[in-house]
Each structure stands twice: as structure tokens, then as C-alpha cells.
Backbone:
């Protein structure tokens, strides 16, 4: 089954492809984090996230680290922030890519080896004392906010935070405040007030300002949703006018396969029989998909002493289950590839707009190094969720030609929608169905 590449690639931009970034600056202790949390809480959406500039302090030299433990290092100067790394990560977020965020320990005064990951936010809130300082950051911001608070209140908040969360003593905190924080506020922080779009006094107590910002973000999200729906409609029209992609592999319709189809399509089939034969069909689909794994010639000796020239796999296989339906594939997958590493993605369709939405992802470690990645979903109709699932893998570094979407039933438009955007990927299908057929396969399998 040699891969053939169909016609030219069609561009697709997911909802997070041009993330909106909001900057929140202000004095240390002015309530920036609390303000950002209040905005996120008022929206109650999984794709609005907060990024703290505290993660981007520069690694310290031994001399600087010793000074930091004596409370004599200036963390409140722009020179302490690694703006180059910050700008690079913001560009990744802006372009819909995976952004690896450093982790800084104030107890150790050092950047830790591990990182955290930000991926697919529609809106990102950047909060920090210098969020509006660097012109490269300003060029990426869609909204600039300055949080204002009384200096005495800022000092008391900083004392509580540094003692409780950063392991410092009160004398050291006061030493830092008067030695660095207060003079740097006038020199570096206060000038950001002049370029802010919105100045918010009283922080989280200012309910009107929070409601106004939340309303603006809601409008931004609604605009992104409308644009994404138009994008899917455009792709659907292109797919309708195209023949079935040569990278869509329909398994051979043998008598056994037709007999299993008959049982699965029969509404009188018992739940026990349905599960048994669906697991058998999944095994056939997985066996077909595994043929795309790279193999290399291998010579072995048989128990009778003969030499056999065969093949052995040269890379590992991972699978990504598209929840909830993809969980119906797991038993058949385990029977076929017992040691397969499995990840999960939750993509749900918004029943008000019909738009697929990414809610959760947990991918196998080092998935981009796998020789083959199977994406499992029992049914593909419009192809919107499948398109998003493949896009997630590509954004995480999985080469397109190593991705195989495996499904029991699919519509021609849905398959073409995916393979016109990702022409080097492949799709293994057991049965071609109607383009807009309602999902029923996992309901029969799971019983609910």
C-alpha cells in the first residue's frame, strides 16, 4: 500500500491559530494575578489561560544567586527578565504552536529543568510588572491593562505573598521593597500606565472593569468561533467537489467483513454480540493501519535450523483516542498491539454552533519520535473533529506522513476535508457512509 499524495494542500487554521493576548501590568502587589484570575473565573472557559512573567526570570550566576539569598539582587528591574525567551514563547502561542514555558523557583533562585506546556488557548492573559515594557511584546498584545493600587496596600500584599509562597522573611522583604521595588516602580513600571488601553484601580473590587473586559473577550471568542465555522464550511465545499482522496484506504470488503457489517448494522444484534464483532472489526482496521509502519529486512534462524528472510519494525507505534467514541477502539487495539502507548484527546461539538471544540489532551511522551501514530474514532461525518485531532498532532511535532486516522465509518466529505488539509496523512476506513450521518456506533458499543 504505497502512499500517494493527492492535489495541492488546503490551508486550515484552528480557533487557536491566532491567539489573542492581553497584557496586565502594574506594581508588585497591585493585584495583577487576582485580576487575571477574576477575569478567567467570570468567563469559565478552558481556552482562556494566564501566563505569569515570573516564569521568565533569567538564570542567575553563582554570584547573583548568593546576592539573591541575601535579598540584594534586583528582581524588579527589566534586566532580570529574559524577554528574548518570553517573546519567543508568545510568538509560539500567537501562531497556535506548542509553547514550553520555563519554571522558576524562588526558593532556589534558579530556573528548573522541567517546563510546563501551553497549547491551544484562544485567549492568553500575560501578567507581570513589565507586561507592557518590551516593544516586541506590545506588538503582539490585543489589549493593554494597567492595574493600579495604593502603595501601602501593594507592600502588605507583597509581604504576605513572599513570606507564604516564596520562603522569605519579613526583614528581607522590606529590604527588597525599599531597595529595589519602590525606586524601580517610578523608573520602569509607572511609565507603562501611559500606554495602557485600560487602567483598573481597586483590582478585583472593580466589578465594572472586570465585566467590561470579560465582555470584550467574549466578543473576541465569538468572532473566532464564527471565523472557524466559515473555515470549516469552505473546506467542506472544496471536499464536496473533490474525488475521494487516494490516501483514503477502505479495507477489503471480504465476505467476513461484509458479515460483520451486517451484524453491526442490524438493530436486533445483542449488545454482547455487537461488542464482540466490533472488537473484531477494530482488529482488522488496526492490522491494515500497521502496514504503514516502517520495517527493515531481518534474518532469523528457524527451530529447524533454516534461515528465514523477513522484516522487523524499526519504530514504535502510539495511538491517540478521540474521546468519547474512540474508547470503543481500545479493546481491539490492545488485542492487536498489547504494548501500544495510548493518549487521549477530548473534542466535543458545540451543539449551538456545530463547531468542534478541543477540551482536553494527554498525548504519549515523545510522540513525535514514533514511527506511526494512530488516531482512533469510530465515526467521521463532517470531519471537523478529525481535522482538529490531526492538527493537534502536527502541532506537537508528529510528521504528517506518520499519522493514520482509523475509523469504522466515514463520509466522503469528511475524509476529503482531512486529507486535503493534510495530504500526506492517511485514513483507514471499514465502511463509507453518509456525509452527515448521526453518531451511533459508540452508543451501541458503550450502551449509553
Residues:
Amino acid at each position: 500500500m504505497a502512499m500517494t499524495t493527492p492535489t495541492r494542500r488546503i490551508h486550515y487554521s484552528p480557533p487557536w491559530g491566532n491567539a489573542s493576548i492581553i497584557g496586565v501590568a502594574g506594581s508588585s502587589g497591585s493585584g495583577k494575578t487576582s485580576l487575571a484570575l477574576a477575569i478567567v473565573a467570570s468567563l469559565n472557559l478552558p481556552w482562556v489561560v494566564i501566563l505569569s512573567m515570573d516564569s521568565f526570570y533569567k538564570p542567575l550566576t553563582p554570584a547573583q544567586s548568593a546576592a539573591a539569598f541575601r535579598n540584594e539582587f534586583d528582581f524588579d528591574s527589566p534586566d532580570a527578565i529574559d524577554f528574548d525567551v518570553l517573546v519567543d514563547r508568545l510568538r509560539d502561542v500567537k501562531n497556535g504552536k506548542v509553547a514550553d514555558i520555563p519554571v522558576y523557583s524562588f526558593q532556589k533562585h534558579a530556573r528548573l529543568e522541567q517546563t510546563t506546556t501551553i497549547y491551544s488557548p484562544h485567549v492568553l492573559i500575560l501578567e507581570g510588572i513589565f507586561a507592557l515594557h518590551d516593544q516586541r511584546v506590545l506588538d503582539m498584545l490585543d489589549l493593554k491593562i494597567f492595574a493600579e493600587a495604593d502603595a501601602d496596600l501593594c507592600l502588605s500584599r507583597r509581604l504576605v505573598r513572599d513570606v507564604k509562597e516564596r520562603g522569605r522573611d519579613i526583614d528581607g522583604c522590606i529590604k527588597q521593597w525599599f531597595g529595589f521595588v519602590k525606586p524601580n516602580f517610578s523608573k520602569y513600571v509607572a511609565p507603562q500606565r501611559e500606554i495602557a488601553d485600560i487602567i483598573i484601580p481597586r483590582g478585583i473590587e472593580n466589578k465594572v472593569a472586570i465585566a467590561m473586559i470579560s465582555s470584550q473577550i467574549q466578543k473576541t471568542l465569538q468572532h473566532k468561533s464564527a471565523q472557524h465555522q466559515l473555515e470549516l464550511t469552505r473546506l467542506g465545499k472544496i471536499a464536496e467537489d473533490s474525488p475521494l482522496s487516494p490516501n483514503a484506504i477502505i479495507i477489503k470488503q471480504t465476505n467476513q467483513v461484509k458479515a460483520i457489517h451486517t451484524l453491526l448494522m442490524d438493530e436486533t444484534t445483542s449488545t454482547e454480540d455487537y461488542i464482540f464483532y466490533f472488537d473484531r472489526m477494530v482488529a482488522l482496521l488496526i492490522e491494515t493501519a500497521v502496514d504503514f509502519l516502517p520495517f527493515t529486512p531481518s534474518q532469523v534462524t528457524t527451530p529447524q535450523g533454516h534461515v528465514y528472510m523477513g522484516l522487523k519494525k524499526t519504530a514504535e507505534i502510539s495511538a491517540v483516542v478521540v474521546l468519547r467514541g474512540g474508547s470503543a477502539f481500545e479493546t481491539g487495539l490492545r488485542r492487536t498491539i498489547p504494548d501500544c502507548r495510548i493518549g487521549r484527546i477530548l473534542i466535543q461539538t458545540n451543539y449551538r454552533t456545530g463547531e468542534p471544540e478541543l477540551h482536553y489532551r494527554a498525548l504519549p511522551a515523545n510522540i513525535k519520535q514514533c514511527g506511526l501514530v494512530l488516531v482512533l474514532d469510530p465515526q467521521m461525518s463532517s470531519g471537523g473533529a478529525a481535522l482538529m485531532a490531526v492538527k493537534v498532532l502536527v502541532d506537537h511535532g508528529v510528521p504528517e506522513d506518520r499519522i493514520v486516522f482509523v475509523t469504522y465509518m466515514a463520509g466522503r466529505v469528511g475524509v476529503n476535508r482531512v486529507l486535503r488539509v493534510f495530504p500526506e496523512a492517511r485514513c483507514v476506513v471499514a465502511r463509507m457512509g453518509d456525509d452527515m450521518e448521526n453518531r451511533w456506533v459508540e452508543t451501541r458499543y458503550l450502551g449509553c
Observations:
- The mean pLDDT is 87.
